Amino acid sequence: MGRIVTIALGAFKESVRQRVLYNLIVFAFLMIGAAILLGSISVGVEQIILVNLGLAAISVFGLLIAIFIGIGLVSEEIDRRTIYNILSKPVTRAEFILGKYAGLLLTLLVNTAIMTAGFYVALAIQKRGLAPQDFSLLIAVYFILLQLAIVVGVAIFFSCISTSILSAIFTFCLFVIGNFTSDIRGFGQESGSPALEKMTAAVYYLLPNFGDFNVIDKVAHGVRVPGLLITANTSYALLYIAILLSGAILIFEEREFR
Amino acid sequence: MYAENRETPSRVQATTMFAIETIGLTKDYKAGFWKTHSKRALDSVNLQVNSGEIFGLLGPNGAGKTTTLKILFRLVFPTCGTVRILGKELNDTTLHQRVGYLPEHPCFYEHLTPEELLHYTGRLFGLGKDDLRRRVTRLLEQVGLRDSRHVPLHRFSKGMVQRAGIAQALINDPEVVFLDEPMSGLDPLGRREVRDLVLQLREEKKTVFFSTHILSDAETLCDRVAILNRGQLQGCGELRQILSLGASTTELILETPRDEILEELRPLVVSMVRTGDRVCLEIGEEDNIEKVLAVSMRGKAKVVSLNPIKMSLEDYFLSKVSSAKREPVAAAGAQDA
User: Fold this and answer.
1) Which residues of B touch A14 (CB under 8 A)?
2) Nearest chain B CA: its distance from A18 CA (Å)
């Protein structure tokens, strides 16, 4: 456990040194600031605009951070040969993967916390104060974090089998498809073709289903998120991450570093 | 092929526990776009390294030295064969607590300072804070990086990175230290420092296994050496023994000898090279020395010098490597490193 923590803290320190991280956070703040301006010219729906755009900014920039930094954590270690030094120590390959994953998750947690704080500042400026019900928006932030945790798992999985650039492309594509898996399944069911129905169902179960994690629109309109969905999404994310990391470890165990 | 390894591996194992032991170590790399054909990088390598000795693995670039070390640290996996370090199989992760490794051209997190690197590495070994602090201070002093301990590694010269690498390889006070080309990139002073460090490790009764293609370093440091070429072990043994394996020759230099004398000497010598007025004769067999001298004296040739020529490690190395070139191995293509 100590070794995983050491690797995680090392990965966290390494990722917070990357300029891309700060650039993305600045862009996220700019977008949240722009949401205040857009809200001010949208009479009657100022808060809905701010919540929608603000949370979307947290989600999109969190995703970019997860992809850009996530894919580099393993494949760049291999490219730069820093991995030789780590794996020659009493560190198992599983510990290495888990440590890297935990480090990036910590980075995302801190970044999301900073962006969320910026979002609430913007909300407080617009509303001239915060009400207790405004904190129910945190459920949407929690779901964003769960999504990002899956995306990091996907990024690490791909970076164990491919190059940095291909891993980024695969991860991004999977994220986009993952947002439409319910629609893809619905299309298969409506097509009337049993083969297509089976195929789309396989895609639905195999690929991560990010659709259920997107509750930004609901919370922006003040709709309550059911407790069952919180439990279901949490369990789904944990299970999916466990599968991804197990797969990544299995592949990484067999990998040779020539 | 070499005296030390004539005993069968099983018998050797039954009598002694070696610090490092490889039995029939073979590695084939998959090559080509579809990975359909393979290249042999190591071919049935048997090595036994005794505890407390400095062992040099010598070979030209592409001989398989780095592959051997990568197998020992499970960075690549052997195709077949057995490896034991301190009597343990490689999949025993506790083994890594007792060994240290400096990779070839070491790369570390460049934003770290050497002090941070050593603390990071020490934590991977599970060392306690106080113990770690003591070791870091001592090692930075030992490798001459005390004054640069707060400078990030990306500002370091190659030699300084190498020193930081050696320090991290020693952070766990290992019983066996593996150094892959430890002198590479170092200036003469740096090489001397590393040499002294290796000798210090010997005094501390540690086993040092290092690969190098700098023969003078091996000649100065090693108790025993093995020569690897194109994945095959060409020879292995104590340096003294290896150097006495090659027959010593004697060099006789004559001044202005007559041609008929030279013709008479020709069957008695290995080679005859004329440079201006002088002729250098290489006498192979000891019995012929007296005969050659007698003929020379009789022919009134002036003897300039008579010197025994001892074989150097370089001569031995070159003879082994060139003989392997003349007899290409069946497993062609062992070009990895």
Assistant:
1) 109, 111
2) 11
Q: Are A89 and A17 in contact (CB under 8 A)?
A: no
CB A36 within 8 A of CB A49: no
For residues B272-295, give the mean pLDDT: 87
C-alpha of B119 from chain center: 30
Instruction: Note the ipTM here.
Output: 0.81
Q: Do A2 and B74 touch (CB under 8 A)?
A: no
* B125/A contact by beta carbon, under 8 A: yes
- Comparing CB atoms, the residue among B76, B93, B336 nearest residue A90 is B93
Residue B255 is encoded by which pair of tokens?
Answer: 């001044």
Say how far apart CA A225 and CA A66 lie, in whole Å: 26
- Span A71-99, mean pLDDT? 87
Q: Which of B29, B97, B107 sits opposite A90 (nearest CB)?
A: B97
CB A144 within 8 A of CB A152: no
CB contact under 8 A, A90 and B124: yes
Residues 6+ apart with CB under 8 A from A75: A159, A162, A163, A164, A167
Question: Does the beta-carbon distance from B124 to A82 stay under 8 Å?
Answer: no
Confidence of residue B55 (pLDDT cuts 50, 70, 90): very high
Name the band, by pLDDT with cuts 50, 70 and 90, for residue A245: very high
Q: What are the tens digits of pLDDT across the range B103-135? A: 888 888 888 899 999 999 999 998 888 999 999
Count CB pairs under 8 A between chains A and B.
67
Number of CB atoms found within 10 A of residue A2's CB: 11
Tokens 């020379």 belong to B296
| Model confidence, pTM | 0.79
Contact between A257 and B70 using a beta-carbon 8 Å cutoff:
yes
Boundaries of every domain in chain A:
2-179+214-254
Residue B126 gets the label, from left (phi > 0), alpha (psi -120 to 50) or beta, of left
Q: Which domains does chain B have, with CATH numbers?
A: 3-244 (3.40.50.300), 248-309 (3.30.70.100)
B121 and A89 within 8 Å at the Cβ level: the answer is: yes
Count of C-beta atoms within a 10 Å radius of residue B111? 12
CB contact under 8 A, B93 and A6: no
